[in-house]
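Re: [help] complex structure
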Amino acid sequence: MNREIVEAPMGTTAERRVVVEASGEAPDKRWVIVTRGIRRDYDMGGEIVRALRGVDVAIGRNEYVAIMGPSGSGKSTLMNLIGCLDTPTAGEYWLNGTLVSRMTDDELARVRNKEIGFVFQTFNLLPRATALHNVELPLVYAGIAADERKRRAKHALEQVQLENRMDHKPNELSGGQRQRVAIARALVNNPSILLADEPTGNLDSQTSEEIMKVFEELASRGQTVIMVTHEPDIAAHARRVVVLRDGLVSSDDRREAFAARVGL
Amino acid sequence: MPLFEAVRLALGTLRVQKLKSFFTLIGVTISVMFLIAVVSIVQGMNRYVEEDFAGKFLGVNTFNLRSFPDIQNDVTEAEWKAWQRRPKIQVEDALAVREALPPGTRWAMHDVTRTDASSQFAQGGPKVLAEAATPDYFLIKDLALSRGRVFNEQEDALGAPVIVIGQEIAERYFPNLDPIGREIRIHRFPFTVVGVLEKQGTVFGLALDRQVIAPFHSEMSRITHGRNNLYGVVVQAPTPAAFSGLEEIVRELMRRRHRLAPADSDDFTLESSESALGQWRTIRKYMVLAGTVLPAIGLVVGAIVIMNIMLVAVAERTREIGIRKSLGARRRDILAQFLVESATLSSVGALIGVGLGIALAAIVAKVSPLPAAVAPWSIALAVGIGGGVGIIAGAYPASRASRLDPILAMRSE
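Output below.
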């Protein structure tokens, strides 16, 4: 791993605190994600479950952040909110200078299409479609013409070294290849953030390392990467680690501090 | 999502799941098949009735002066009794009509009865349709001969015992013989055969090949009792335009002859192919109704099947819907995807139905006397129905799909 990479412009802890406290105002452009007092309650048959109890996070452009926590810590809920798949019960969520916490379903779909590239634990590729068509999908919903779509999807697959697997269906690909197709799909729309949910959860350790290398390279080229994981050694690949516990941020460190603390 | 993309996706699904698609589409296919077949047959019959039947049976541009209609529809007891009291059409009436007609108009009087026939070769058999007619009758009814000749004015005037016989009569009473010049007895009266009619076929149960036609002034009118009372007078206009004018001339004449006051209604009937066709049109209305209502019921069943299959498809592809939504598909994209899919599915079913319907109509036309003519509008209608049924049937499943929560949808297996 290249340790000479310049420090991401993540700002100091104090700066971040100011950003997350200035309520109701759009944050500065250098922050791609700002959540202010985000809460998310679920009604489980009359019993209210508080998955998030007021999370304040600010993530700058070009950062490579891991969100960590044990199961039940609220990290999946946070990832759904950041990914615009869900809206918070209370609090503000600013993505790329836009308040998305009050958006309608279709507006959220638009934001997901333009701003977010998802990489899932279970890959979530369409089983009946070829790798190329899977990568094309976000462009289909962006209304890009077929020729342009093909060109960009091919280019994205080349980026993950799968140009010779374009016409294969997911079941004809290995786990690592599937995840690389998913990464190509996530990047094809040039999203503001790459949002990965346990990206190595279904992969063996060697393949996991390969995928982490891909992420590292993307981050070094300036792609904002947010990765949700429960594995500390995977989280340690990121440059900053936010740890959640019981629906609150329990720590927010640089990698070195995190690694030292968990004994990696 | 572009329409083309959605149609391709739908056809892909269809290709992958052939058996399921077959059962999905069978309702729509069969309904459309019957719709096309029935419309084609009605259309064909229509052409047959309006061209052949009306022409053959009643003559083109022709009307018949009769005491009451020959072709009756829903006649009440009272009406029938009133008809029986009407004055008969008499030979004097027929002659007066001829006097009143402008030149160029064809005229014939005739009388009809059913009676026995015999020859030295065969006796018995079904009753023949014996007609006494003046010579222009052949021209007006467009009766062509396969052999021999018709009788002429002179033979009619002299009451010569000559006769023109139908195809079936020729075969029955002169088996393997040339009937020309031979004797046939109609109700024991001897006639010499001078002509044989071309095969006419059967029109609505009336065996036209069992008719025999002799001069009006021959013994035949004694057989038919037509000396005074006539079955009818036939008038053929030279052009369709002249038709109604002629009808008026005859109507005025007959009203005068029957001394009807202006307030009285006609006590005779002018029956034309138009008035007979009115009946056919009633029949046709019911046939079209049955031909559309029954397939409509089939389509409702077909729509329910498609709706169920689409609900299953939505359930099976919940994860796919979740993935698509996570990648930026809006509600309307998912809605459109499933609507297009079910419309495509249904349209394919309808198209197959169109093909089968055309084939069925062709088979019916081959094995039965019913003709068939495929109406282009019925194909357009069928395809439109196919798409429409698909959209209606797909609306609920598609709307359910479009409202799925992406997080939950992606978690489903």
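The mean pLDDT of chain B is 87.
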